[in-house]
Design goal:
3-stranded antiparallel beta sheet; single chain; SMI1/KNR4-like; 9 helices
Length: about 250
């Protein structure tokens, strides 16, 4: 299996000491967008999607084609019923634009190089987590505002994954110092949970900013095989968080 098709964590770990060279874009090798500050501020999740569409259209049209049509109101309602939760409006807005992504004709990726889950995939992930266990797996390390009693918390609703043990989730059960709807990253290999953004709008705005600032690039090995796979620079690469100075406080 080509290295880029493995989970992003495994691919980076195999690179070892070559991490920086493998992940940091080289203008002669990896395709990266330039820094574009000409756009107005993003005020809604839908506006963020429009900017993402523009970037993908210019730099990764195959990934744009991988994005599914919108989820229906019924599909969103059915997902909420399974979760037993009323999800934030921003989460609904996320899925009203695209019901995740597919891999038809392209092995693509999106947020932090992860795959955007369909509602059905999110439900499957929820059902895997919502199983009574005698010995919950406690969180080893986490940012403030995040519960630590169980790394498989059923009220952490997944919306992206790396194909392995790294997921992006909407946290619907924060501690009193957290915010319902905050976006977290769960690393099940290390039982670590990272707070990324206070809500999905902030998450989407950050993704747009990172795209337009050139912090994302297309993996060269994937391009050689005719695929577009979005990767990101080490300083924002939460999947491989232990290599970034930003999250060193969670290592020990």
């Amino acid at each position: 299996m080509p290295e880029w098709k493995m989970t992003r964590r495994h691919a980076i770990c195999m690179a070892g000491a070559l991490l920086s060279a493998a992940c940091t874009s080289d203008k002669g090798d990896d395709q990266v967008a330039g820094n574009d500050q000409s756009h107005p501020p993003v005020n809604t999740v839908t506006e963020a999607w429009h900017r993402i569409h523009d970037w993908l259209s210019a730099h990764a049209p195959k990934i744009l084609a991988n994005l599914n049509p919108p989820a229906t109101a019924q599909e969103i309602q059915e997902a909420e019923q399974v979760f037993g939760l009323e999800m934030p409006e921003q989460w609904k807005e996320l899925y009203r634009t695209h019901n995740g992504m597919n891999s038809e004709g392209n092995m693509g990726s999106l947020f932090y190089g992860m795959q955007f889950l369909t509602l059905q995939e999110a439900i499957h992930e929820y059902q895997n987590n919502n199983v009574p266990v005698e010995d919950p797996a406690p969180v080893r390390a986490a940012d403030s505002g995040i519960r630590r009693e169980n790394i498989y918390h059923p009220k952490w609703i997944a919306f992206a994954h790396d194909g392995g043990e790294a997921l992006l989730r909407v946290d619907m059960a924060p501690t009193p110092t957290g915010t319902a709807g905050q976006v977290i990253f769960t690393d099940h290999a290390d039982n670590t949970v990272i707070l990324l953004n206070k809500n999905l709008l902030q998450f989407m705005k950050q993704f747009v900013d990172d795209l337009e600032a050139g912090r994302y690039f297309l993996n060269q090995e994937a391009l050689a095989e005719g695929d577009e796979f979005l990767d990101c620079k080490p300083e924002i690469d939460v999947v491989n968080w232990s290599f970034s100075p930003r999250w060193q406080h969670l290592k020990d």
